[in-house]
Amino acid sequence: MAFFDLFKKSKKENQESLDMSWLEVDMHSHLIPGIDDGSKTLEESITLIKRLKGYGYRKVITTPHIMSEFYKNTPEIIQIGLSELKHTLSEEGVDIEIHAAAEYYMDEIFLEKVQGGQKLLTISNNYVLVETGFISKPQMLLEILFEMEMQGYKPVLAHPERYQYLVQDKKLVSDLIDRDIYFQMNLLSLTGFYSKQIKTFAELLIDEKKVKLLGTDCHNERYLDMLETLPRTKYLDKLKQLDLLNQQL
After folding, report:
1. Pick the residue with more confidence: 13 or 30?
2. Most buried residue, 38, 141, 173, 216, by CB count within 10 Å?
3. What is the CATH number of the domain that holds 69?
């Protein structure tokens, strides 16, 4: 074994193990194989879920993308993938609760679905995970959120710390919070996985207690490799002090 390999092994052995049993539920991931930019194969999905179980999660709510231009998933497609995943987990004796919702991209097509009364996949109760583009604020953002609420849904904004327009518009952040829009933060944002700016904004949202839900947003093993560095971040203890909803899902 090369010296560098020994160094990597020693470093991993000395690293504090990741324990997410306090959070109980991961409510944002992409683990149904082959239907979006997440897991590519059933084997990969099983590996990822086994790792999540090993971190102490008792339940996983996976959330495939539904995007009109790129990932034209439907509730039927998602449920078929979920059934296959559950069957394989059972065959392999992996005892973890798993459900599926979706991560909806907010655009004109999504607005039409909401206005038309199309049933949306929920994380739990009436919670619906939604996302936007990362750079510019969608012109219809507030209109879509309002329409969702009129249909009885509770919008959960996925990874707000990653949206450049929110970083630059603190008033909009406050307006969304005042409207009781729930913020879901990606755990990896605290590790610097995306960027230093995103990490800083994530820490700010935690300091101001604006985060209601936490998710791994796991797509592949690289995500979980980085997640294992979370115990080295200074904000892990602060996460545990938040009034989070994960345990209730």
Report:
1. 30
2. 216
3. 3.20.20.140
